Amino acid sequence: METNAYLDESRDPLAIAERWMSDGKEVAIATVVETWGSAPRPVGSHLVIDADGNFEGSVSGGCVEGAVIAEATDVIESGKPRMLEFGVADETAWRVGLSCGGRIKVYVERVG
């Protein structure tokens, strides 16, 4: 029987964010808010990031995680949320790997 990592509480990004915050870590949550085309993660998918760049979850199956983590550490520091957009029409498409087509919007906010 196959298991879904998101049903496993020990791997649930939101549960991990709660644990990190209870340990006194500063945390940001990135949430997929819109997709178009071949985006590999559905709306509502989460990636949690701490101030040291540790992360859990996924917003794109690896295509844009590095860029989102970099932005999230800035969001943690500034406290100001950001809407990030990636896609083939975007100048970052080739750099972050969405060259297969599609578009994704990710909202990043500090929590806790």
From TrEMBL:
InterPro entries in alphabetical order: MoCofactor_Util/Proc, XdhC_CoxI
Domain XdhC- CoxI: residue ranges: 20-87
Domain of life (superkingdom): Bacteria
Protein name: XdhC family protein
PANTHER family hit by this protein: ALDEHYDE OXIDOREDUCTASE MOLYBDENUM COFACTOR ASSEMBLY PROTEIN, MOLYBDENUM COFACTOR INSERTION CHAPERONE PAOD
Lineage, opening ranks: Bacteria, Pseudomonadati, Pseudomonadota, Alphaproteobacteria, Hyphomicrobiales
